Every structure is written in C-alpha cells, then in structure tokens.
Amino acid sequence: MAMKIRLARGGSKKRPFYRIVAADSRMPRDGRFIEKLGTYNPLLPKDSEERVKMDMERVQHWLDHGAQPTDRIARMLEAAGVRAKTERSNPKKGTPGKKAQERAEEKAAKAAEASEAAADAE
User: Fold this and answer.
1) How many helices and strands, by DSSP H and E, does the chain display?
2) What share of the chain is helix, strand, coil (3-state, %, to 5)?
3) DSSP letter (8 states) at residue 7
C-alpha cells in the first residue's frame, strides 16, 4: 500500500483549514485516511505557533514506514527541522510567458523606430 502524508481540506468556503493525515495514496484528497497527524491553518499569521501543529513522533513513525510526504508537507517538515532541506530549482519560473515576450519585442521595436526617427530629424 503506497502511503502519503498529505493535507485534507476542511473548513467552509474561503475559510480553509487542513488536517495533516497519513492516507493511502489511492484515496481522494478529503476521503478516507488512516491517522490524523496534525493541523494547518493558513489564515493565521506565519509566525504563529498555532498555524502548523504536528505530532512529530507519529510523523516520524510514518516516514520510517515508507510514507512519502507531499511537497507542501515536506516543506513544513523542513521548517520544523525533521527533514534535510532539498535543493529546488525551477529555472522557468522567472521567465515571462510567450505573450509577454512578444509584447516586449514589439515595445523594443517601437522604441528602436522612435530613436531612429529622432536621429533622422537632427
């Protein structure tokens, strides 16, 4: 059975609240889980101790038994000091999209034409 440590959403519309759970990876996000390991409340300030609460002993138990944390949970565990930080690289994140690149090229072409016209006028 492939186990995951992941978030299960609760709360009402526009008021999210998450449970940190150990679940079978085939189950739906908010569906059946095996054990509740903690909570995450994104509405609280980032420096609040109540924002992320985890039972570290149980989390470590599931990690030792082969459960894979999702990316968000892995980041929370890194912040808590349970896991070593992993290097993440997304070189495309900072590059503008295709349309934005086309607009930049058009703007540069117009600026070049304007500077040529100003040079010809002199």
Assistant:
1) 3, 5
2) 35, 20, 45
3) E
pTM comes to: 0.70
In the sheet that holds 3-10, the strands lie side by side as 52-54, 35-40, 17-24, 3-10, 68-69
In the chain the domains, ranked by start, together with CATH numbers, are 3-80 (3.30.1320.10)
* CB burial string 63-75: b at 16+ within 10 A, e below: beeebebeeebbe
Q: Can you name the residues that pair with 40 across neighbouring β-strands?
A: 18, 52
Query: pLDDT tens digits, residue range 77-116?
Result: 998 888 888 887 777 777 888 899 999 999 999 988 888 8
